[in-house]
Every structure is written in C-alpha cells, then in structure tokens.
C-alpha cells in the first residue's frame, strides 16, 4: 500500500472512530469529556496463553444453551447469525430444529470458507454470506432477503483468528502486525503496522485508553511513537509485545479468573478494535438489526467487554446518544406529575425493543472452567416491538 493511500484510509478511520467514541460514550452532556464517562472496568478478550484453550477446536461457541433458548427457534423461522466464525452457534441452531433456516455472515474470508463447507451439509437451509455488519443491507438486497425472525451477535474475535500467527492478533505467536478481520479483502485497509506507523501520538493514546482501558496509555503511546525513529517500523507482534513489556511497569496483570495475562493484552485489543472499526460497526448493526428483524423477533447479543456492552445496552434500552446515559426512558417519565406532550407519549409507546433480561446473563462456572474465553461474556436479549416497524 502506498503511504498516501494508507494515510487517507487511516484518516477516514480516525474520523469515524472519534465520531463513534463520541456518540457511544461521550454524549452524556455536551461539556463533559469522554474520559469522564468511561469506567475503569477492565476487559480482556485475549486468549493468549490461556490454559484450557484448545487450538485443535477452531472455536468453542459461548453460552450456546442460553443462546438457543433465548432465540425461540421454531420450524419455518430464519435466524441470522451475524458472527459465523467457525459456525458453532449456527450448527447448533440448525441441529436444534429440522425446519429452521440460518443465514451465516462473517467479514473474515476464512470463516466464510467454513460457512461454505457448512452449506454442503445443510444445503438450502443454510446461506453463507461474506461481509461486514455494515454491508448487510446490500447483501440482503443482492440475495433477495427482506427480513429474519431472530438475530445472533457473538462479538469480538474467534479463536481461529487468534490462533493463526499470520493474522497478527496473537501476542504469544509471532507474526506480522496485521489484525485485519477482513484479511486482504480490502487492500487499502490499514493493518495494525500501518496504524502504528502513521498515527499521531495523541490519537494513539486515546485509542489505548478508550479501547484498551490502558491506564498508562500516554506513556505507552509516547514509547511507540519514539520506537518509530529507532526501529523505523514495528512490523511484528513480538516486536510490539516486547516494546510494551519494556515500557509498562512490570506489575502482574490478572484476568477475570485471576490468572496472569500478558502486559500487552490491552494494547493488542485496543489496536485490534481500532483497525477493525469494531465499535462503529456494532453501532451500525444495532440499527440495521432493528430494521431487518420481524416484529416479535429476538435479538441476542454476546459481548466481551464493557465498551461493547455499553453500546448494545444504549440501543436496547432506547437511550438517545444525546441523553445522559443514566436516564433511561422509565426514569425520564417516572414523575407522574409531569405534563407529557404528544411527542413524549409517542416516544414511550414507540420503544424499539423490549428487553428480555434486565440484567445481563453470564456463563455458568463449569463453562468458564472448560472454555476460558467465555469468562467475560455478557448476554443481552431483546424483542423487537410489534408497534415499531
Ligand atoms: C467470536 S467470533 C464468533 C464465533 C461463532 N459464534 C462460533 O460459534 O464459531 C466473532 C466473529 O465475528 C466476526 N465479526 C466481527 N466483527 C464483524 C463485523 N463487523 N462484520 C462481520 N463479521 C464480524 C469475526 O470475524 C469473527 O469470526
């Protein structure tokens, strides 16, 4: 990729990212900064060095029983699996009911090849689609699909992506600093190495802080920029991992199961989220999901870190991006003495979603033990309201 192309693509990505960080986290009130709204709650989606993770299994589906029971699978229904991965959830949905159909989408060409294989087993009951969430309207039009009866989103990376060193997601397996979930589908899309080569220091610090919840974001950003002059270019995952290790305090970091994690886990996650524009994609698919789901249909979302969950929650409970996050619809209209104009009343009765589980569901202890990737999973489910089409 020429330096100029990479710069243009990077600038577009930065622009979109700052928009979404602003709209998903920062609009509690116009004069308060984004930092004030992002809680210090840590997340860790990496599998690096996680004991119990089996590289022979492409990807173990998370909370599969809960997903199946939430989705209400019935004969003749069509379920859209927006994050096909290795097809673990799709397969279980197809096997759970002889007459259900599944559409399996993924942006990753490797996952798409798995999906094409699955079609050999399930024939017309399964439709594989290659594309990003934001491409769903175009793909539906191309394939003559108008609506679906249930939708599943299982966010983040698959084990297949983490385990393949050549994809550049892994701290423990050395490979090129790539991290593009789309592989080479979009040759102009900046890789992680391109981002680190061209990004400005203050932008990098924000990415590390917001997407990685890295407490030492500024110090790390400074070191990465300085490394450009020393190494010229950070090219591999181990170069980045060593750099982070050498810069950050060597205090032991623990995951949610209190097991040691690599000090660069948050850095890798932040850069991956940025490279793949993950939060913006999520924000878009929450809108699109509401458009393509039939009234009464269910949306099930598995998220793995607090920023993702916050975007999902805001859509499901109907918090306007310009509203303070603490004000849900019910809080806003709790005071019976308030006068409500017709617009207010319309707003109350025109809610997009009815939330099924008020509090997130989390995996059982046994599942976390046998599949450590499930440890930070949060499941939310909502029904598309009948009166809102
Ligand atoms: C956690 S994995 C899903 C695993 C899957 N449920 C299974 O059981 O094998 C998430 C998948 O979503 C895909 N993905 C993430 N963001 C996406 C997006 N914006 N558009 C399409 N696919 C996306 C990733 O490529 C990855 O394969």
UniProtKB/TrEMBL annotation:
Biological process terms in GO annotation: rRNA base methylation
CDD domains listed in its UniProt record: AdoMet_MTases (cd02440)
An annotated Gene Ontology molecular function: rRNA (cytosine-N4-)-methyltransferase activity
SUPFAM superfamilies according to UniProt: Putative methyltransferase TM0872, insert domain, S-adenosyl-L-methionine-dependent methyltransferases
InterPro entries cross-referenced by the UniProt entry: RsmH (IPR002903), SAM-dep_MeTrfase_MraW_recog (IPR023397), SAM-dependent_MTases_sf (IPR029063)
Assigned protein family: Belongs to the methyltransferase superfamily. RsmH family.
Protein name: Putative methyltransferase-like protein 15
Source organism of this protein record: Folsomia candida (Springtail)
